[in-house]
Design a protein that fits this description.
By secondary structure, the protein is of the alpha/beta class. It has two domains: 191 residues, Glycogen Phosphorylase B (Rossmann fold, 3-Layer(aba) Sandwich), CATH 3.40.50.2000; 150 residues, Rossmann fold (3-Layer(aba) Sandwich). The protein contains 14 helices and 15 strands. The strands form three sheets. The chain has a seven-stranded parallel beta sheet with strand order 3-2-1-4-5-6-7, with helices on both faces. Helix 2 packs across helix 3.
């Protein structure tokens, strides 16, 4: 029997790991924000490693399936469902969402599943050749009948999923933004930018974040302005990015700093934050930078930056993948300044977001009958 009273509900959050990423930080913040309002919370990972493991807190149980092998993950999630009997499961990202649905099909205990999408589905679709992409999308669309709700971190993420997987999912797909706490720390006088100007970028060193574009842009910026760029993050492209820095002769201008636990203090001490991503859902680091009051420049990539900056009202948006456009925006903002983005960042305050999560939990628990369009006895889909 599932709980119907939110205060008696047990929640589980599924996420691959707790490394230094936006989705990982947000998952912990949501779990901690909900903990006083429910009976228990588990966070289940593929492996219990990462910089944010220590942030989980003693009143939240951290468990691991100790594998990334899809078959083992599904079977162990099934065992977790049967053993721990969560009432609601929040599956973070497309991969974990699909695995949670398959575990639901195999298990005896069937909780409400909520898929939490952090990136546009189109970015997954584009990884495959057209025939394979069509098969994968059909499979995802069939499994998407299982979750009680599907939430996306931005309107663009929701729209992308519905466009690819089917308009019928629009009735159970909704936007729920990530919570970003206000910044309380260093207060800097920004009336004048002292040269060299200090630029900061943050993110995993991978293709999505497109730091190669930013480095090319800085190579153009240095012809007009005296700047220094610090890039914070770890990832598989570190060596190739360092090679790019060396080839362009930017060793004294661009530094790959690695991970920093006090990243918002470092943002506050900088003169500008730059986001160079090729795609995003709702980039946490952009909102975090905005909470410190520094001007921001971002690529107008799919989909989050446009929504966060409200079309450019709170920071500069530039054409994606055009180094000269990004460089010119950086120079313009250094010389003319930018709007204080803190009023917009306040819209993402945790109290607002946690209240919406509590409403979601209350609504889901109030629903009776089947939590999906899949027939539980046969595993068949009545709508297919």
């Amino acid at each position: 029997m599932r709980a119907t009273d939110p205060s008696q509900a047990k929640l589980a959050f599924l996420i691959p790991m707790l490394g230094a990423g936006g989705a990982e930080r947000v998952t912990i913040d949501i779990a901690r924000g909900l903990r006083p309002h429910v009976r228990a919370i588990d966070i289940v990972t593929n492996e219990s490693v990462g910089e944010f493991v220590e942030n989980v807190g003693p009143d939240i149980t951290l468990q691991s399936v100790d594998s990334y092998h899809i078959g083992k993950v599904i079977w162990r999630l099934r065992a977790f469902f049967d053993r721990e009997k969560p009432d609601i499961v929040f599956a973070q990202g497309t991969r974990m969402s699909v695995q949670s649905a398959l575990a639901w099909l195999l298990g005896r205990h069937r909780p409400h599943i909520i898929w939490c999408l952090h990136n546009p589905y189109s970015t997954k679709h584009d990884l495959y050749s057209p025939p394979i992409a069509a098969i994968v999308t059909r499979a995802v669309a069939w499994l998407a009948k299982i979750p009680t709700r599907i939430i996306g971190v931005s309107e663009g993420v929701c729209r992308s999923f519905v466009d690819f997987c089917g308009k019928e999912f629009s009735v159970k797909t909704s936007v729920l933004h990530n919570p970003i706490p206000p910044y309380v720390g260093i207060d800097i006088d920004r009336s004048e930018v002292v040269r060299p100007a200090r630029l900061i970028a943050v993110g995993r060193l991978e293709r999505q974040k497109n730091f190669a574009l930013l480095i090319d842009a800085i190579d153009l910026v240095r012809q007009q302005e005296d700047v220094r760029l610090s890039v914070y993050g770890q990832g598989p492209l570190r060596d190739s990015l360092q090679q790019q820095i060396d080839v362009l002769g930017l060793q004294d201008i661009v530094t790959l700093e690695g991970y920093a636990s006090d990243i918002r203090d470092r943002m506050a001490q900088s003169d500008m934050f730059v986001l160079s991503s090729s795609w995003e859902g709702l980039p946490t680091v952009l909102i975090e930078a905005m909470t410190t009051g520094i001007p921001v420049v971002s690529t107008d990539c799919r989909h989050g930056p446009f929504e966060i900056l409200e079309g450019g009202k709170w920071g500069r948006l530039v054409a994606e993948a055009v180094p000269s456009a990004l460089a010119q925006a950086i120079v313009d903002v250094l010389r003319s300044g930018g709007p204080d983005p803190r009023p917009r960042a306040a819209d993402f305050a945790p109290s607002n977001v946690i209240d919406r999560y509590r409403d979601l939990i209350r609504d889901v628990l109030a629903e009776s009958g089947k939590s999906a369009l899949i027939d539980k006895a046969s595993g068949s889909c009545p709508a297919c």
